[in-house]
Design a protein that fits this description.
The chain is mostly helical. It has one domain. It contains eight helices and four strands, in the order ααααβββααααβ. The protein has a two-stranded antiparallel sheet. A two-stranded antiparallel ribbon has the order 2-3.
Amino acid sequence: MKKKCERSFASSIGFYKLFWVFMIGCVLGVTLEVLFCFVQTGRIVNPQGVIYGPFNPVYGFGVVFLTLLIYPVFNKQWYIIFIISMVVGGGFEFLISYLQQFVTGTVSWQYQQLPLNLYGRTSLMYSFYWGGVGLLWVKKIDPSISMVIAKPKKKIGVLITWILVVFMIFNLTISLLAVNRWDQRVNNIPANGTVGEFLDKTYPNSVLEKIYPGMTHLGRP
């Protein structure tokens, strides 16, 4: 038993487990959104939220919050989990939309065309989707991935995790800086210093428009 514990990795609700929940949520969310939009419209969309890789942190952080909040009620009735996921997911989507606009002057989604939307940042329909995703995650997906990510030896798991942590911190930071500079260019604000010039050269409008085709510049609230 002792030997088995020493070989386990990310087997409880801690940093390592939650980081891998975040990573899997980032990729799984992008995959589901691509499939959903293809079935609905027949078009392939690009819902990635960072410059490098098929990751969308909105889904990643959303799944982490769901995991933390729903973990204590894991054994409750399905509708309790559904309602909690619905409220948490919809509220999180609203918060992230507001923060994105506040920091970068942009939004990645707008739901004004949908009934029962909340300032276009979330809607009842998408809150229902969050409810379904939360229920599916708690009952089916999380138990499966928990067994998978607990298998690597601790040293290997820790090493891979920290490599990905550094990569994602860089990815999130450079994406935030590039989008913020993009909004400045849209508003005819010249580059200020070496960082701004680097962002203009490396991530011009033409590049970011391909990465974020659904992003809209609304200005800061």
